[in-house]
Amino acid sequence: MLRAEGQEYLASTVPVSAIVARLRRRGLPAFVSRDAGAYLCNATLYTALDMARRSAREHRIGFVHLPSSLLVEERRPAFGVHPRCPLTWRDAIDGGLEIIGATLGRPVARR
Known about the structure:
Elements: H1 16-25, H2 39-53, H3 89-104
Helix pairs in contact: 1-3
């Protein structure tokens, strides 16, 4: 709990299962997590969810982790696959578009 008067647990407001299913159909590695991770990631998600909960409007809020191996460009050729992560930057962008489409309830155009 990050706020003294806040709830201990706040659930994401995006369709997590639908997002994971869409990513897997595209052959992208994805899984549901019940934890946003270490302090900064968790604090970011919790704060956004808490602010949305206190708002009069409906908000769709979730958190997506991208593998840190995408940041290690010096260890592999640009846009190539890192041995620990079968994900390229193209995959990450395509996956991001799928996440947006699933969250908005719309199909994503295929390239």
